[in-house]
Amino acid sequence: MTEGGSSKKKFLRMVDRIATNKYFQQVTDYKYVKRAMEGLSNTDIKLQLEVHGLEGRLALNLPSPPHDRIWIGFRTNPQLVLRARPAVGARALRFAHISNWIEQKLTREFEKVLVLPNMEDILIDLMTPTPVSFE
Questions:
Q1: Fewest CB atoms within 10 A around its CB: which of 7, 8, 36, 135?
Q2: CA 72, CA 78: separation in Å to the nearest integer?
Q3: 89: left (phi > 0), else alpha (psi -120 to 50), else beta?
Q4: Exposed/middle/buried for residue 99 (C-beta within 10 Å: 0-12, 13-18, 19+)
Q5: Where's it found, cell-wise (predicted)?
Q6: How confident is the model at residue 57 (pLDDT cuts 50, 70, 90)?
């Protein structure tokens, strides 16, 4: 089992325990708490992501015709420099540990998807053979 999967399950179990707690249920019956929860559920959550640099050795796989795809992937983990700016509603979150956590998660996910043996494929329409009709 992956590390991310088990931590996600633990987090969901914790949220379930809190939500089913009788004290939590009593607190959610208060009109002020209900109003705050309704306002929060309609709030936009945004993430602004800036990629400042990406450096690494890229591998290109060009299959022989009639394939219409190009496969790309990095040979080793690339140096990825990015900056995440989360925002809830109109308010930007200025907590460095939250931004760092998001950046680390995005970097790991990038490495899972684009570092060999994993590759991403790109469809190239120019390489698709067009049928020729003879009349």
A1: 135
A2: 13
A3: left
A4: middle
A5: Endoplasmic reticulum membrane
A6: very high
Pairing of strands 45-55, 58-61: unpaired
For 53-107, the DSSP string reads EEE--EEEE-PPTT--EEEEEESS--EEEEEEEEEETTEEP--HHHHHHHHHHHH
Q: Per the structure block, which two tokens stand in for 124?
A: 């190239």
Locate tokens 């992937």: which residue? 73
Instruction: Give the pLDDT of residue 42.
Output: 67
Q: What is the pLDDT of residue 1?
A: 44
Global pTM value: 0.56
DSSP state letter for 50: E
The pLDDT of residue 127 is above 80? no
Matching residue, tokens 């009709």: 133
Lookup: tokens for 58: 């890229």
Q: Are 73 and 119 in contact (CB under 8 A)?
A: yes
Taking the CB of residue 46, how many other CB atoms lie within 10 A of it? 13
- Range 117-125 average pLDDT: 84
